[in-house]
Amino acid sequence: MKNGHLINREISWLSFNERVLQEAMDKSVPLVERIKFLGIFSNNRDEFFRVRVATIKRMTKMGSKTQKLIGEKPESILKKINKIVIRQQERFDVIYGKLKNELKKEQVYIINEKQIQEKHHKFARDYFHQKVLPSLAPVMISKNSIFPYLKDKSIYLIVKLINKKRREHSKHSLIEIPTPVVSRFLVLPSVNNKKHIILLEDLIRFCLNDIYSIFEYDTAEAYTIKITRDAELDIEEDMSASITEKISKSLKKRKKGSPVRLVYDREITAELLSLVTQKMSLKADDNLIAGGRYHNFKDFMKFPELRNHTLLYRKQKPLLHPLLAASNSVLKVIKKNDILLTYPYHSFHHTIDLLREASIDPKVKSIKITLYRASKNSNVVNALINAIKNGKKVIAVVELQARFDEEANIEWANKLREEGAHVIHGVPGLKVHSKLCLIERAEGRSSTLYAQISTGNYNEDTAKVYSDHSLLTANKEITSEVRKVFSFYLDNLKRGKYKHLVVSPFYMRDHFLKLINNEIKNARAGKEASIFLKLNSLVDPEMIHKLYEASNAGVNIKIIARGICCLMPGLKNISENIEAISIVDKYLEHSRVFIFHANGDELTYISSADWMQRNLDHRSEVAVPIYDTLLKAELKEFLEIQWSDNTKARTLISPQDNKYRRTKTKENINSQNKLYRYYSQHAKLLKSK
Predict the structure, then answer these.
(1) Which terminal CB of the chain, N or C, has fewer other CB atoms within 10 Å?
(2) Is residue 433 flagged as an active site residue?
(3) Is residue 403 over pLDDT 80?
(4) Does one domain contain both 666 and 683?
(5) Which of 433, 469, 590, 597 is catalytic?
(6) Residues contacting 327, CB < 8 A, separation 6+
(7) Is residue 317 in some structural domain?
(8) Over 50: is that where the pLDDT of 243 sits?
(9) Does residue 316 belong to any structural domain of this protein?
(10) Residue 191's domain is classified under what CATH number?
């Protein structure tokens, strides 16, 4: 199969982020939420540069081998990326301007330092002196001085103090905007029911005289700049160092990673821009990007809510699963029934309740769990610590290489170890990405195992906004194999053999290829054949080519891919029987669900793994089959509702133009709203039974 039948993963990712930007334009989205989507778009793009662009830049130094590896010259990919990023930035600036105008209609004004009313002067200066000034550390810059190190994720003001009479006495300075300790937004006291908001950097501009009063100058110029650095961890092969020590050292190096992008205010003077680029030894091809007045829009994800609920999404209270809500014991319910929790429609409290119950139940002997990303104030970890205090054996597999969560995970690992947990730092050469919990309880003369297998993390914060599935089961065939996975984590020589769980990197690729081949066989025999996939990313060439083969054999394939999709649907003689959509809405679609027709005896799986080479070959992942017929039907209905979406679904086709999907029905269907109604009604049906 030619490389031309695969979309470059970087270009596909940028197309996904374009869909996020579309949400900021969508007038059906509440106004403040649209502003927050600008923040999500900006944060996504920052991580893209820190990881993917940084990787491609490193590839430019590797010679011709990389072209064979990725299909084209890395320099060519960088040029394409730069072109798209600049176009998106221009669109971003236009959208931001429109949103500011829409805020004005709501009597909300984002103002700069020149627009502060005299009534607000004292309040602004008092706030500056009390909250902001103590956190500032201006650095004076001369021609001979060493330019300060610019930190990743930070924004700076490059300042020129101009002495018109004695130009040689003009000064240059650099100020880091202290957003880690001071809010990016200052809401000024209301005047005539009008709300005024000033950004932190503009407040600093307003008070420049208070900072530089010791110098003689007539006017001052101040422009924002921002550097993005390579975030790849370089883990040294020091056999004497622990994995924690290695990653801690690598994190320190990450903070001093090579620059991969400089974004600057396009109004900056040529002199100041030249000063920055020369001091930092940056060249024209180092992704120097002219932006607007403001950078680090990720902070807009925390835009003030303004106490106007019409400007925000209507809050939907997470539902209690009726079988769990009606019982005092989660374990008793799981022993009788497999339970499927679907976040954020169902409450994550059920998982916390499960762990709390296990922590105090005298018959529970042990709890084993994988932790990839825990919340900042984790009730999950608190429940595990409580279990240790109650004499339970706790084994926690804490993955220290969870990108951008490494420091937090090191802290959690240390805390659990101090409390007496057996902490495992992943598997050498593999990243542990599975989402598993196993509880062993003494019942009679033997023990009963209870397992939770999920598509998302044990994180109560992300469970409020990430759409994920979680299976709770006491099925002996499944729980015994979950125990095998944990045995592998404890002893990496014990890979185990599995009849039910699908485990990477040993068996997952072959297993799903076998299931696709089975659909191909059935289609060629004239039988009905279909595949329904929901995932975050579809990148792996072998899996994509196998889906092309299935399409050519007559297998009907539906794909819901939130992010990267390197497959090209609808190509004649290649993928005519493949349709693909992407849904971007208020909840982040994070679950992975795979359904194979299997000649009418449908096979249904939920999984922690996307179809990417890293998931299939370089990570420890788990997919679990759903055996309960009611739960299989529930998952099928979940996918069908998502497939019916015609308000937030975009059709994924080769031009990557992100056109909204249109369906035959005249009804406007928002799948996430419809799913909330579905689970509300589903709860009533289960209660009635």
Answers:
(1) C
(2) yes
(3) no
(4) yes
(5) 433
(6) 333
(7) no
(8) no
(9) no
(10) 3.30.1840.10
